[in-house]
Structure formats: structure tokens, C-alpha cells
Write a structure and sequence with these properties.
By secondary structure, the protein is of the alpha/beta class. It has helices at about 15-25, 35-45, 55-75, 90-100, 115-125, 130-140, 155-165, 175-185, and strands at about 5-10, 30-35, 80-85, 105-110, 145-150. Strands 2-3-1-4-5 form a five-stranded parallel sheet, sandwiched between helices. The protein starts with a strand and ends with a helix.
Length: about 190
């Protein structure tokens, strides 16, 4: 069975990754799975559990690790996957690079102006103020991607750019370059 593709939208919270995924999905001509990382946090039980900060950190780590494996599992079954994630910790990218060997992954950086990130955080009301701006400095530290889009003014232009990337992918993928750099450093 041929492997499906993974289009990974990486950006800070409130940058519009899920909105962009939904806009792209509406214009795709074939079925894709939309798997945002937030879905895994939503389906995890017991958000009211009485755990220490360290224990919650471990739960969040395992949740994200499970998400990575679900992406690869879906692609391995032949499904194309639209994913969105916040690669704000180096282990997240390292884990994905290790797990996706042999898979077709397109990495899209989703950015947004700091002013708009702050506005979206306030409007959502369920985010820590200032977290998105802080994350924006962290999520792109690895430097490489197949496409960068800016959602400050909405999803229309970014949607067209992502669809064009899917239809006309580059010969060499950012994930392959990032993986090769990590191997060279080891």
C-alpha cells in the first residue's frame, strides 16, 4: 500500500493553522485526514485530574508523542494528512524527523504579525496572554521549510499557496534536509 503524504503546518498558537487547514481541505479534490494537535488534547480524558506540574508535563509530552505516531500511522495506511503543530520544543521536530523516514512530508511555516497574534489570543480567551508571540520565536528555530505563509490578513492567499505546494512539491523536502543535518551533526 502506498504511503500518504503529510502536510505539516507549524506555527505558534493562534496563528491560524487550523483555519488554514480547514480552508485547504475544502478545496482539495481527494479525501484527506485533518489531524490538529489540539484534537489530541481535546480527546485526552480527565483534564481535571489532580496532578503535579511535573506530572502534567509528562502527560502533555506523551500526548504529543502519541500525536506524532498517529500522523505517521495515518500516512502509513495510505491516507493523506493535513496536520498542524507547534514545534516549540526541539524534541518534537526530532521525534517527527525520526518517525517519518521514508514518508513524504511537506513542512509549512505559518506566521502572523505579533499584533494580530495578541488580538486572536484575547478573542479566543482560552490562551495564556503572550504565549503565541513567545512561541513564534521558538517554532521556526530549525530554519528550514518548504513554504512560509502569513495569515495576518486571513487564509485566502495562504490557502492558495499551500494548495500550489501540494500540487507542485519541491524535489527536495525540508524534512529530508533537516534530517540530513541532524545526522551530520551526530
Amino acid at each position: 500500500m502506498p504511503s500518504g503524504r503529510i502536510v505539516l503546518l507549524n506555527g505558534p498558537s493562534s496563528a491560524g493553522k487550523t483555519t488554514l487547514s480547514q480552508a485547504v481541505a475544502r478545496r482539495l479534490s481527494t479525501p484527506w485526514l485533518m489531524l490538529p494537535v489540539d484534537l489530541f488534547h481535546q480527546v485526552r480524558t480527565r483534564p481535571d485530574a489532580d496532578l503535579t506540574d511535573r506530572q502534567w508535563h509528562d502527560v502533555f509530552h506523551r500526548t504529543r508523542a502519541a500525536y506524532h505516531r498517529a500522523l505517521v500511522g495515518a500516512a502509513s495506511s495510505g491516507m493523506d494528512v493535513l496536520a498542524d503543530h507547534v514545534l516549540s520544543e526541539p524534541w518534537r521536530l526530532d521525534d517527527l524527523l525520526r518517525l517519518t523516514v521514508g514518508h513524504d512530508v511537506l513542512l509549512v511555516h505559518v506566521s502572523c504579525s505579533p499584533k494580530e497574534l495578541r488580538r486572536r489570543e484575547r478573542a479566543r480567551g482560552d490562551r495564556v496572554a503572550g504565549a503565541a508571540v513567545t512561541q513564534q520565536r521558538l517554532v521556526f528555530q530549525h530554519g528550514d521549510c518548504d513554504l512560509t505563509v502569513d495569515t495576518t490578513y486571513g487564509p485566502d492567499e495562504p490557502t492558495a499557496a499551500v494548495l500550489d505546494l501540494i500540487r507542485n512539491p519541491p524535489g527536495e523536502r525540508a524534512f529530508d534536509r533537516l534530517r540530513a543535518r541532524r545526522v551530520a551533526r551526530a
